[in-house]
Amino acid sequence: MRYIPAKKIVLPVKNEIDLFGSTHMMNIYRGCDHGCIYCDSRSECYRSGRPEEDFGTVCAKENALFLIEKELQARRRHDTAKKIIGTGSMSDPYNSFEKESELTRGALLLFDKYRCGVCVITKSALVSRDADLFTSISKHSPVNVGITVTTTDETLCREIEPNASAPARRFKAIKTLSEADVFCGVHMNPILPFLTDNEKNIRKIVEEAAAAGSSYVLCYGFGMTLRKGNREYYYENLDKARPGLKEKYMKTYGRKYNVVCENAEELAAAFAGECEKNDLLYRVKDINAAWKKEKTKQKKLFEYE
Ligand code: SF4
Known about the structure:
The chain is of the alpha/beta class and 305 residues long. 42% of the residues lie in helices and 14% in strands.
């Protein structure tokens, strides 16, 4: 890991839908070493000005915690509205260096100190290390920890997400978080055509999520995105693991950006049915209402105290 200069780390969110209702976003790290072969963050459109940089090399922003504290102090002075800080949309905040560097943990300590909410998305079981801080933040602000699981098949997982935690460890992290009363759920995207787009996989993820104590399972579309940069990387790696599959993609989807599974409707029905059977939230508006409600509950607690 190397350090890179940074001016700002916590930025206002323009489109709330992207980060599940967060008001701000934070990326302490740039790049990610989980190695997911479908990663959209590899797309050229995100890499203007630094095309030579390898996305798989993690960079941490210099003086990150000092900058975050300065930004939170300034924002508190100018704007008293509740802030919810989202992280995990462009790089995983729990990459392999976080265990030692504890930068994400340091940021959570600051969110607790400055009474900000947080929404985290990760593919690492390391997130459960910070259960104590998520519990503490939940006492004053909304918390939502989303762990992405695209397959329960360990072998397939190694092919498509080579350095991320094994699916069983991700479900174990959900269990640890839910036992600590942290609002958490499973994110299922992307769904990869001809690889993870089968009912058995979808139902198994939902079942395991429910068994682990997840509050919700989220799937915002049955497909994936492919554009310049991530398409080439995806195809190159598909070719290594599954010869012939790249050609099937090219024949079916050409150069489409939105790649929708051919059986998307059947998968959507199976997904909704399985979530209802397991009493799990799955609609974005219900999920957002639920984790925001935690804040309302806490507010009322304070009012009576
Ligand atoms: S964890 Fe997320 S950011 Fe990291 S490689 Fe995978 S998809 Fe990309």
